[in-house]
Write a structure and sequence with these properties.
Elements: E1 6-14, E2 27-28, H1 31-34, E3 41-48, H2 56-70, E4 80-84, E5 89-93, E6 101-111, H3 112-117, H4 123-128, E7 140-141, E8 143-151, E9 154-162, H5 168-182, H6 204-215, H7 226-231, E10 236-242, H8 244-260, H9 272-286, E11 295-303, E12 321-329, H10 338-355, H11 363-368, E13 375-380, H12 386-389, E14 399-402, E15 410-415, E16 422-428, H13 431-445
Parallel strand pairs: 6-8, 11-13, 13-15
Antiparallel strand pairs: 1-6, 2-5, 3-9, 3-14, 4-5, 4-7, 8-9, 10-16, 11-12, 15-16
Helix pairs in contact: 2-5, 8-9, 8-10, 9-10, 9-13
Length: 446
């Protein structure tokens, strides 16, 4: 798929408003967060079209004004990530003199209906529709946005945020606040909390410094792994949507298969997240030539804000994630009971996390412990109401998609546009694997 031209029309900065609530000092990142320095980009695209969409210039002006208003409460996002050489920490630094948030305006002959409607992602075009941020050396910016005029009277809104300061829940919380300001919603909402002391890990600040010394030893220079840079644009990426009926059928099938297998581990009625990732994991294993006796692995991230002791609170803005790992012999995902086996293993990983929420905080250790060719990693969540959150006053997006998918076998989830289903995006390096994955996906749905 040949990429189309995207022309930059204007680059400016949205500065902090005078009434912005500035933090009292540097906000030192904790160990959960600093490990994301080497994989810093969290990027999403939102496509808009339809009769409710105002003229492009009006859209841009509305986005700029509402972003400024939103930064009153999200001031740290207009700051920089800095290296504190005296202590070895990395921190968010924000002041009224900062440039603000980079705001890019662009235009392209790409047709919004194709970009938003095709199940296969136009990867190279998507990358041009999100703003670039140089995060290879500190100080580094935390946030940038890009609005692009598309053919077919459409708009693409790209958001790039540094993953060390925001996870998916934080990203969509910010988008929701920005969208509410844009559509003039004055309903009071709890402000975000950037207080890093809310996340307490054994080892405290020294643990974060240890992680930095191991993962980013050349600070202030940050080196992203070469495989991310080299393979990213070669991936084939596809988006599937499981509607409410699909989800319900999968849940019933998992329960039925679990009850029918005497002596097998029990699988209680699963959540939408569990059946979505069980389906993706099963399809991944079946599209590869993996020996039956070899273990296959699935990893996903759990939001542990409310599971810490004491809880960090739902309003905590940061990367507050713990890794969960499920493992099974490959043969288990080829039999008739594959979906139930996969769902049971995922539920077991969730139970283990609930018993010890911080056990999986070291994501690098998890990745190092599993063979990448037999590994599926899941990002996002079926609980992320991205479409509902991103109503800027001209209706829900036609499509929202993740732009950065770094792994051959990555799965990204959000709640589907209808509000009941699950949107599943998949990344693979080989088209033959993706073709088989699609075939297995549709077959298991049937």
């Amino acid at each position: 798929m040949a990429p189309v031209t995207v022309r930059i029309v204007d680059v400016s900065y949205v500065s902090l408003p005078a009434e912005a609530a500035l933090p009292p000092g540097d906000l030192k990142l904790n160990a959960m967060e600093v490990q994301w320095l080497v994989l810093p980009l969290l990027q999403h695209l939102l496509f808009f079209e339809g009769d409710q969409l105002p003229p492009f210039d009006t859209v841009v002006q509305s986005l700029r004004c509402s972003l400024s208003a939103t930064l009153s409460y999200y001031a740290p996002l207009a700051g920089k990530l800095v290296h504190l050489a005296d202590t070895g920490d990395v921190a968010i630094r924000c002041s009224a003199s900062d440039d603000g948030v980079r705001f890019v305006v662009a235009e392209s002959e790409a047709d919004v209906r194709r970009l938003a409607g095709d199940e296969e992602h136009d990867v190279q075009t998507f990358e041009r529709l999100v703003p670039e941020l140089d995060m290879t050396e500190l100080p580094a910016p935390l946030l940038a946005v890009q609005a692009t005029r598309l053919e077919g009277a459409g708009v693409a809104l790209g958001v790039t945020v540094h993953h060390a300061v925001a996870d998916g829940r934080s990203l969509w919380r910010f988008v929701e606040a920005w969208a509410a300001a844009c559509r003039g919603d004055t309903s009071p909402v709890p402000p975000p909390c950037f207080d890093r002391s809310r996340v307490r890990l054994p080892g405290g600040e020294e643990l974060a410094r240890t992680v930095l010394r191991e993962s980013a030893p050349n600070l202030p220079v940050v080196t992203t792994p070469s495989f991310v840079q080299e393979d990213r644009l070669r991936f084939i990426r596809w988006t599937f949507t499981l509607d409410a009926q699909h989800i319900e059928r999968l849940k019933q099938r998992v329960v039925h298969l679990g009850e029918a297998q005497e002596g097998a581990p029990s699988c209680r009625r699963p959540s939408s997240f569990v059946v979505a990732v069980a389906l993706a994991w099963t399809c991944f294993v079946r599209c590869r030539s993996i020996p039956a006796d070899k273990d296959v692995f699935l990893s996903f991230l759990a939001d542990v804000r409310d599971r810490l002791d004491p809880p960090a609170g739902a309003e905590y803005f940061g990367a507050c994630l713990s890794g969960c790992v499920a493992a099974l012999p490959a043969r288990e995902l080829h039999g008739e009971r594959a979906l139930a086996a996969a769902a049971s293993a995922v539920q077991g990983a969730i139970r283990a996390m609930m018993e010890d929420p911080v056990r999986g905080w070291d994501l690098h250790r998890i990745v190092r412990s599993v063979p990448m060719e037999r590994f599926v990693n899941v990002s996002g969540s079926s609980s992320f109401r991205a479409y509902e959150a991103a109503d800027f006053g001209w209706g829900r997006p036609t499509r929202t998609v993740p732009v950065r998918m770094n792994h051959d076998g990555q799965v990204a989830l959000v709640r589907a546009r209808d509000g009941d289903g699950v949107q599943v995006s998949v990344s693979m390096l080989r088209r033959a694997h993706m073709d088989t994955f699609k075939s297995m996906f549709l077959q298991l749905l049937g």
